[in-house]
Amino acid sequence: MSADWTDLDRPPLRQASLRAALASGPDAWSRVDVVSETGSTNADLMERAKAGESGGAVLVADSQSSGRGRLGREWVSPARSGLAVSVLVRPTAPIENWGWISLLTGVAVTDALTRVCGLPATLKWPNDVLLPTIDGNGYAGDHLKVAGILVEATPGAVVIGIGLNVSQSQDELPVPTATSLRLSGSATTDRDTVLRAVLRSLARRLAEFESDGPSGIAAAYRERCSTIGRTVRAELPGGVSRTGIADGVDDSGRLLLLTPDGVISPLSAGDVVHIRNPETA
């Protein structure tokens, strides 16, 4: 790790302590590496997966120069202001269930933010982690994105990438619909603490998925998903847009969109926008 940092509010992550904390117990990871900078932690772990590395590896970067989000979007933030972490897993679950890995990761992040940060985190389908805006009287207003998840598969392996905003100020965020733990009133903005909580929650949720299949995680996901019951606009592949009510999430993880003509369409991919009034959105 690089020692040339001067912002005392944003220290680098401590590889030795993270390894010690995460090396044993039921929520352990086999290898934890921290780098000061890389292009993309997901890309790096994908290369290691293709080279045959075993599951359980974690790669964290204090800074990413080519971070990616869903649908090819760029994910950037000031150095040491957030968490950019990827993990390599080799699931034994049937490959047709691997689509749930993306959704269970969102549940795991909400687990950690609720337990350690004291924040009422929810999910926007499929896996954006949201926090409510706050004002002088407490929580109010729309929910804003604090974390994104990118899951990529290669034969026999899955790489899960998580980007989480931690200490960014309002002018450091890329879009008005984003927030950070600090802006949301988190009980802690210590990145080591938050990272440990996220990785432990993710290990537990992955273990449940391997032992119980999608059924358990599906119930937890539906409970956390704030998209269900909302009027939404779904931007689908090919430039198609549909508006309707999010009627639920099925056992395959697809969003069930109830359109104005009364037809329920299951959506397996797309970008969802929560809207208040479909006639004016």
Explain what the structure shows.
The chain has helices spanning 15-22, 41-50, 100-116, 191-212, 214-224; strands at residues 31-35, 57-61, 82-89, 122-124, 128-135, 138-154, 157-165, 231-236, 240-249, 255-258, 264-267, 271-274. It is α+β, with helices and mostly antiparallel strands. The protein has 2 domains: 15-224, BirA Bifunctional Protein, domain 2 (2-Layer Sandwich), CATH 3.30.930; 231-274, SH3 type barrels, CATH 2.30.30. Helix 3 packs across helix 4 (191-212), helix 3 packs across helix 5 (214-224) and helix 4 crosses helix 5 (214-224). The model has no long low-confidence stretch (mean pLDDT 91). GO terms for molecular function: ligase activity. It comes from Kineosporia mesophila. InterPro entries: aa-tRNA-synth_II/BPL/LPL, Biotin_CoA_COase_ligase, BPL_C, BPL_LPL_catalytic, Transcriptional_repressor_C. This is biotin--[biotin carboxyl-carrier protein] ligase.
